[in-house]
Specification:
three-stranded antiparallel β-sheet; S-adenosyl-L-methionine; alpha+beta; EC 2.1.1.259; 10 strands; elongated
Length: about 500
């Protein structure tokens, strides 16, 4: 479909996925990312009589010895539908503190810097340094966090751990492209670390570190690390990461960093977590991981999706082609308005098209008799002109190219939406259910985008374009669109 645009204006329109790597984590100032379980919307009332694995009891005892929990702590680990979670021991009010963890137990770049590997990791990206630290500490019998490592999962239902299944089920999806891109990225980072850090420092890394070890650490950080906590850009907090996600929770205001009272933790900073819901004794404590993540991001980061269709999304990537004869002018205009040579737009289910999408599309398609708008005379005002239809040819072009591109994208899937819905009615493995759910959601979004631009095509004759608006401004066009006087013969 890019060729259609190129033939008309020298610009290309591309649809592909956008990868979200640790260096580009999105989220609110206090953003918890964690788990290993797939039932995202279960509500448990389980009591505490269900026994937990011995490793969990050992972990809990360690927390007692470290002064993190006591007889007054209102929650305790329990077996829940998601696997493992925190269950209340008493009735809890909304916003009541359920746990506090001192900074000395956090795993973050400061912990790395203070360790034996701090010097060799000082020049690394924070997530790479913390990943190496996690791997090394897990192999040490004397690690402060050895009992914490005992309750961490070996892997999650994240698509990075089941790429072969995703590849089989998700042919044509953005999730497949993103998953494969992330795996390639992680592998490349590991090979570089192996060559530059791990092998030259065998005394610091005596135990062999494998690619599987590195993927484990990546998954732990991807699913459990807080970002932007006060001065912390990346921090893993034991115990806090046992709390599961629920779509019932619609606020992310649950985590705080406070200073401990004198004598409690020697004025150590505390991570304090509050329950966003009122709970009865025996209920599971839930939080909201991220209100803004799509189902594809939830699948990649945590290994679950929500049944809520509003989480379905599709990312449109638009690009100004370097072969466009107006490339420099268009790039200058895009950059002046907060965009670049490429622009990414996340389309969500039942939401309006994102701001900037239509102006950017019109800019990419601009050419022919509309190219006068690219002149320097209009440079400071052109984006305002692009907010509304420029010309019938321009508007018709973007509708046609988008719809043809959507048709091509839908043809890449091996199933229809109806077939996916029938498949979902059967009993599916959790990972298979994630893949099918994402595949169905993407197709629904593509159909929604097609419907949006189909409606625009039907309105082309009723729209008001730049020339008509300009003539009205000059008083040369009547309210009904008729051009006044002899000027009409020139149009």
């Amino acid at each position: 479909m890019a060729d259609v645009f190129s033939a008309c204006s020298g610009s290309a329109l591309l649809f592909h996925s956008r990868c979200f790597f640790p260096s580009t984590v999105k989220g609110p100032p206090l953003h918890l990312k964690r788990p290993h379980f797939s039932a995202a919307n279960c509500v448990a009332s389980l009591g505490t009589e269900i026994s937990v694995p011995p490793a969990v009891d050992t972990f809990w005892q360690w927390l007692k010895e470290e002064g993190v929990v006591s007889a007054k702590t209102p929650v305790k680990p329990g077996v829940v539908p998601e696997g493992l979670g925190l269950v209340t021991l008493k009735d809890i009010s909304r916003n009541e503190v359920v746990l506090q963890v001192p900074k000395r137990l956090w795993i973050n770049p400061d912990a790395v810097a203070a360790s034996e590997i701090g010097k060799v990791c000082s020049g690394l990206k924070p997530w790479l340094a913390v990943a190496l630290f996690l791997i090394r500490e897990r192999s040490r019998a004397d690690s402060l966090w050895k009992h914490y490592f005992g309750v961490l999962p070996k892997e999650t239902d994240s698509t990075i751990y089941c790429a072969s299944l995703v590849e089989m089920i998700c042919v044509g999806t953005q999730l497949l492209n993103t998953t494969l891109s992330v795996k390639e990225y992680v592998e490349n980072e590991f090979r570089r670390l192996e060559k530059e850090i791990i092998l030259p420092n065998k005394k610091l890394f005596p135990s062999p570190i494998t690619l599987d070890d590195f993927f484990w650490a990546f998954g732990i950080l991807r699913s459990r690390a807080f970002s932007r906590l006060r001065n912390e850009n990346l921090v893993v907090i034991p115990l806090a990461d046992l709390i599961n996600h629920s779509a019932r929770v619609t606020t992310e205001e649950h985590a705080y960093e406070i200073k401990g009272a004198a004598g409690l933790f020697s004025w150590d900073y505390l991570f304090s977590l509050r329950s966003p819901l009122s709970l009865k004794a025996g209920d599971q404590v839930y939080i909201q991981y991220d209100l803004n993540k799509s189902n594809a991001e939830l699948a990649l980061d945590y290994g679950f999706i929500e049944p809520n269709a509003d989480r379905n999304a599709y990312t449109l990537t638009l690009q100004i082609s370097e072969s466009d004869p107006f490339f420099e002018d268009k790039l200058d205009i895009a950059e002046s308005n907060g965009f670049g040579e490429k622009a990414y737009f996340d389309i969500f289910h039942n939401r309006p098209l994102p701001p900037g999408l239509l102006p950017y599309l019109r800019l990419v398609a601009l050419g022919g008799t509309d190219a006068f708008l690219l002149e320097s005379l209009f440079r400071n005002s052109i984006w305002g002109y692009l907010e509304v239809p420029v010309s019938r040819d321009n508007e018709e072009l973007i509708c046609r190219v988008v719809r043809e591109t959507i048709k091509t994208a839908l043809a890449r899937y091996h199933t229809t939406i109806e077939e996916d819905q029938k498949l979902k009615e059967t009993k599916l493995d959790s990972r298979l259910a994630i893949a099918v759910g994402i595949r169905e959601g993407e197709k629904q979004l593509l159909q929604q985008i097609d419907e949006n631009f189909k409606e625009k095509e039907l309105e082309l004759d009723q729209l008001e374009y730049y020339q008509e608006r300009r003539l009205k401004d000059l008083g040369l066009c009547g309210e009904n669109g008729d051009i006044l006087g002899d000027l009409g013969k020139f149009f």
